[in-house]
Amino acid sequence: MFLDLQLFPEDKIALIDDKKEPISFKKLIEKSEDFYSKIRKRTLVFILADNSIESFVAYYSCLSNGIVPLLLNYKIDADLLTKLITKYEPECLFFPKTRLEELSYDPLLEYEDFVLVKTGFNETPLNSQLALLLPTSGSTGSPKLVRHSLGNLEFSATTVGQVFSIGPDDVAIAFLPMYYTMGLSVINSHLKAGAKVVLTNRSLTDREFWNTMREEKVTSFTGVPYSFEILDKLRFSRMQLPDLKIITQGGGKLKEDLFEKFALLAEEKNVKFIPTYGQTEGSARMAFLSPEKVLEKKGSIGKAIPSGYLSVINDNGDELKESGVSVEGEMIYKGPNVTMGYAENIEDLLKGDENFGFLKTGDIVRRDEEGYFFIIGRKKRFLKIFGLRVSLDEIEGLVKSRFHVECVCSGSDDQLIIAVNDPENHQKVKEYVSSKTGLFHGVIQVVYQAEFKRNETGKIILNDF
């Protein structure tokens, strides 16, 4: 059984969500068996998930019974969802009842807030190792998916538990979406250790979020860079959270001033502050910085997780193994949490492991004389905004298709910049991209670019933008 939940006391609370109705480990297993009873075979299921017990039950049932789920944002744009359904032909969908009329399916199984339906597609051919699919870009509904094995997820859950010293008395709050690799890692790693997880769809600016933190005696908080910007504005330093023991950060590089501020705050409050690094392709966490090193190695992602290996390669692909010296290049990772590869169509779901535990991260790093890694840039064209990876190529495609304009995207981890050769429709472009991606309109800036420089083949020269 996935995460070995049957090993824990039956009456111990496993999950509680915004409804404030806790569920025990025994009941969680029983509900997952009920979900499986409606499918009874290995097949592909799309789960439009929020952070609720119902969503997790569907996910857990799939992983425990050989069903392969694709986790998606429960608010995913209907057009993007239709494209994914057409491309991958899932046999079943699990989604909120509020979308039942919009998606027009007959219910197979009804929960309080969710429904399981049949799509009419036949059973999907799947590789025997395939256990989970996650989007490479949760914001744009990209058809490119990451293929996970059960071993990837089990290793990651166990190792994260070791890194954070998670035990059965711990309580984690999971507000990062479970369809996002970091959010899923929080849930899996704590349940694997027999800890309780508080699932919530509430934002950090909601007073009830902090009431829940205190009421449930939360010991572990995991956020992305944007989370820490909000915490700073909320004057987190003044909050009384006596049970909090650990604060972890992932999902992109934290601004240096916030990194130092939270490192000092953690020291003052006797709380562990642990920055981490990961990617969907590495089942979330791949590196962490020990809490005793956060002030000495400000801005570092630390070193590899247990049983993982980090190194640096040059432009020729040669590994730079010199110790005791500072080197720069693309970071590579090796470990059992490296996923099987990508899927871009239904045929790819039959593929086996193509990575064999090796991953080129696409991040340019500096490794210092003591072996600590610092990210200094990205090789690939993507941003991480609010911890979610956003493909610049995909955004450009959306804008070009809708408005029939030339478009080039750039930006940083807190802003997406869209340049178009249309001087008038900036607000419409912003609203369209916001609606399609779910990104807050305030982080999207549309600018006018009268002319884009091109190379000899007519391709826009991105470096000149």
Automatic annotation (TrEMBL):
Q: Which InterPro entries match?
A: AMP-binding_CS (IPR020845), AMP-dep_synth/lig_dom (IPR000873), ANL_N_sf (IPR042099)
Q: Which domain of life is it from?
A: Bacteria
Say yes or no: keyword Ligase present: yes
Residue intervals of the AMP-dependent synthetase/ligase domain: 9-342
Keyword field: Ligase
Database matches in PROSITE patterns = AMP_BINDING
Query: Which SUPFAM superfamilies has this protein been placed in?
Result: Acetyl-CoA synthetase-like
Family per record: Belongs to the ATP-dependent AMP-binding enzyme family.
**What protein is this chain from?**
AMP-binding protein
